[in-house]
Structures are given as C-alpha cells and as structure tokens.
Amino acid sequence: MSNAHEWIQRWDTQQERYIERREERFTVIGDVLEEVGPAEPKILDLCCGPGSLGSRLAARFPRAHVTGVDFDPVLLGLARTAHAGDPRRAWVETDLRHAGWWKEARLSPGFDAVVSTTALHWLSGAELTRVYRELAGLLRPGGVLMNGDHVAPAWEEPRLARIAKARRDLVQRDADARGSDTWEAWWEEISGDSAFTELWQERRRRFGDRHGEEPITLDFHLAALRQAGFVEANVVWQRWDDVVMAALVQ
Ligand SMILES: C[S@@+](CC[C@H](N)C(=O)[O-])C[C@H]1O[C@@H](n2cnc3c(N)ncnc32)[C@H](O)[C@@H]1O
C-alpha cells in the first residue's frame, strides 16, 4: 500500500466535489480549537476516514495527539499506512452504531476536542443522540465537540433547499469538468488495486451499499447536543446547508 498518500490525495479531491469549502471547514475547526486549547490538544477524530481532518490539525498543532476512529477497513488501512511511525497519530476500529463503542475501543475520557467531518449523517437520529451523549462524557470539562456536515434543509423551506442543491450541483459540474473522481468512481478504482482486495471485501461485508441514512436537520442536532449535556451548542460556520457546529461541555 505504498501509494497511500496518492489515494488520500484523490480522496480529498473527491470529497471537495461534495463539500465546496472543505479546507475552510477544517480551518474553522482548528480556529475554535486554538481558542479552547490547550496547545497540546488531545483530539478524537470521529469517523476519520483516511485521516484528512486529523492531518490538518496535526500540522497546525505540532504537539497534538490525534486518535482517529472509523469502521471502514480500507480508509483506516490508508490512514495507518500513510501515518505509520508518527507517534502523534493513533487509529481505532469501531462501529459507532453500537452503544458503548468507546469502551470496546478502550478510549478513556479526557479529550480536549472531538471533531468529525462529513460523517455523522450516516447515523440515525436515535444513534446520533446516543453518540452525542457518549461524546459529552469523553470530553474533559470545558472541552469542545465540532461536527462539520451537511444538514437536512428544513422541509418546510423547499425553495431554500432547492437553491442550496443548485449551488452544490454547480460545484459538482465544475468537478466533472476537471475530471475529478465521484464517490463511486473513487471506490471503484481502489477496489481494482490489488493491495486493497482483502480490505475492500471486508468493507463490502461491513457496509454493503449503506451510505447516509435519514435526513437530520440542524435543529435536531442542536437539540440533541443540549440534551446530551452540552451547555452551549451552535453553528460557527456555514456554507449553504453545510455547517460546522461547535458544542461545549461545562
Ligand atoms: C464521507 S466519509 C468522511 C471521512 C472523513 N471524516 C473526511 O472528512 O474525509 C464518512 C466516514 O464515516 C465513517 N462511518 C460511517 N458510519 C460509521 C460507523 N457506524 N462507525 C464508524 N465510522 C463510520 C465511514 O467509514 C467513513 O470513513
């Protein structure tokens, strides 16, 4: 898997087709973290994929320690290979759909920050509510959770939803014109790389065709965060229906 860095670069380009200002999102997450501190943050990157967000934070906070959590063997395989030998990075394989996943994963409370991008929409509303509660318990007092993701537009505002969709479609057409991978094409290509055959087959067993679940609105997220015990929860960045939420524990 010597070409892990190349696959991750292609992953990032592929993701940018769906998240117009992905790097800006990562930067905002770092900005909040810089304010919350400390300078040596202990970070949990939830649903880390191949580790893109954790890499941006590790570059910005050289004394950070970032634990990436995911259930996808291919993406974790890429992350582990690309960052092998970096003592600031750790990887944990676990399925957030199982209550108590963090205990199985042998994680201990005390994180300064939990961060996540483009991932929690894979969970159902009930799973998300439970995961938020678990995360509130994993953070140290005063710690922060940040979640960057598309949220479902309020269905009673169909015209605003159409505007957001039209702008996202435009970004995708630009990506087509540049010849960048779609999600499907990226997976198709990596499945043809013999270095990934076994991991890819394991991925098929775990995920099947599952991708994203029920639409969850911003209001739902914010209410679930407060219910979970976060004392402040709000949007700190937004681009159409793509938001970064930040929530603080007492
Ligand atoms: C679109 S990717 C985003 C990856 C990365 N955060 C990024 O921004 O590039 C969604 C990630 O969520 C992970 N994921 C989805 N459901 C999960 C679950 N139940 N437990 C753990 N990870 C999950 C997937 O494996 C995938 O890596």
Automatic annotation (TrEMBL):
GO terms for molecular function: methyltransferase activity. The keyword Transferase applies. Pfam families: Methyltransf_25. Keywords: Methyltransferase, Transferase. The keyword Transferase applies. It comes from the Bacteria. GO terms for biological process: methylation. Residues 43-143 form the Methyltransferase domain. This is Methyltransferase domain-containing protein.
